[in-house]
Each structure stands twice: as C-alpha cells, then as structure tokens.
Amino acid sequence: MGTTFSQFFPPPPALTEANLPSQDGRVFIVTGGTSGVGLELCSLLYHAGAKVYLAGRSETNAQAAILKIKARSTTSPGELTFLPLSLDDLTTIKPAVDAFTAKESRLDVLYNNAGVSLPPRGSVSVQGHELQMTTNCLGHHLLTTLLLPTLLHTAEGANPAAVRVVWISSIAVDASAPEGGMNMSELTDIPSNQQRSYLNSKTGNWFLASSLADQLGSRGILSVTQNPGNLKTGLLRHLPRIVGFATSPLLYPAKMGAYTELWAGLSEQLGIEEGGQYVVPWGRLHPNPRPDLVAALKAPEDGGTGVAAMFLEWCDKQIADFQ
Questions:
Q1: C-alpha angle 267/293/203, rounded to 5°?
Q2: Each residue of 201-245: pLDDT tens digit?
Q3: Between the CA of residue 154 and those of 23, 108, 203, 278, 298, what are the distances in Å?
Q4: Is the pTM of this model over 0.85?
Q5: Rounded distance, CA 207 to CA 274, Å?
Q6: 264 touches 279 (CB < 8 A)
Q7: Which residues are identified as catalytic?
C-alpha cells in the first residue's frame, strides 16, 4: 500500500530541465511524441540540444507539435523530425526503421512511449490483434527488434548503460495485475473486460523490458520500464467523463510524466545492473515490486515462473512476418 501511495504522491523529480546535461550530438526516438507526455519529453530533449525523432501516425499533428516545441525557445541547437509509423499496423514499422537508418547511424535512447488505453470494446489492429496489445507491446517490440543493430552500434562507442530502451508500464500493474502477472490464455481468448487487456499490455511491457535487459545488458544496453505517473493526458479519452472528473484531483500535468521518462532514459544513477527494473514517478527505482511479478521475470531454473519468457516467445511469433 505504501509503494502505491508514493506513486500517487511522489517526491520531487530528480532530473529536470534545470539540471539536464547537454544532449548535443545524441539521437532519440520518441513514439507518441506529438502529444501528452511524449510531446513534453521531446521538448525537454530538444531544448537540451538533442536530435529527436517524433514517431507517430499523423504528419499534421507532428508538425503542429514541432512548431509548439520550437516556440518555447528560439535558441536551441536541437533538431526535431517527424518519423511516420503506426504501431497498430505492423507493416509500417520496417519502412519507418529503414527511413530512420537511411539518415542516422546512431540511436542513443529509444522511448517506447506511445500507448492506448481502454478503446471501444472489440477494437483490433490492422492485423486483427487486440488493439491495446498491438499498440502497447507488439508494435514497440517489432520497432525495438529492428532498431537493435543501430542501438548496438551506438553502444560500442559509449559507456555501459548510456544507450537505453525505455518502456511504459502503469500503476495498474502494481494494483491490479493478476497473480503471476498474466494469464497467457488471454492473449488468444481476449477478455471482454478492456481493463484486463490493458493490464496485460502494461505488464507485458515490463516483461519485454526485462527480457531485452537479459539479452543485451552484457553488450552495454540498458532496458527498463516505468510508470510515468497519473497524468492528465489523452490516454484517458476513452473513459467516461465522470471517471475523469472523479480522478482529476489525483492527476498531474503531462510534463511531470516526462520527468519520469527523462530520468529513466538519462539518469547516471542507473547502470547495467538495473536492467529490467521498474522506475516510478518522478524518477526513482521501484522500492518494493510485487514478488509474484518479479518471479514472472525469472526462468524456472532461477526460481521463477518463466511467464515473461513465454510472453516474449508469443510476441516473437506475432512479429516474425514483419521483420
């Protein structure tokens, strides 16, 4: 209960624009960078001198976001570029990666920031998967997989943990995920309760973050997940208005969530040994993750349940034809 309470009422952020080092020469991709937390994160990075790719579906929205960000300062040496992709259509991911790698030879941090929450019941992706699972997990897993050569190339000339992949989870994982994190049968027998599918996708992001950390930690890449916080963003647009009204006193501006992501992607307090861990608002390691969820991250031979590995195997099968 204390851990959940501290995520509703966090201590002040440790890393903000006031103490963010220059990011000149570094390259970032932020999915969902045209609004909400993603826009605020892109703004922080841009004004620190970074080259930032705003990945999303709408060029119109991206250009509007770029103008909004640039209007906040006329002196930044940073760059902002739109990268077209649609996470709910796996056929768009490889062309996006090809377009990126045609321009860039490095990628310092990949922020798998975009997400969808509680869309209308029955919503599916272009390929027919449950929409939340596709947007939140499968699209990002494919994007990350295709960008691994660039991430690894960048890591070869960088300090350990300087190159990172940051995933997005939710306070709902702590509060409501089923025992063991996920029932694998629900990936094919989709629950009628949209909240359950959302939980599966947010728990799945932690599983993917941990699995990637196990895979690439020895090669200098840090992968973590994080709960950005309880925020006033468009992620709540599918909820009934009364829910938004009732929860409003517990919600924070989107920029606060950007501080959580900033810390996860750039804090020097995180090293390779923190790979696969869970960051909470507004930038600190989760002090007491649920034991059953930690067990799900481990293989049976290491005293765990192996659920994360099973989820990764399922995700790999879903994206295999799009690589």
A1: 70
A2: 999 999 999 999 999 999 999 999 999 999 876 544 444 444 444
A3: 15, 7, 28, 24, 28
A4: yes
A5: 14
A6: yes
A7: 169, 198, 202
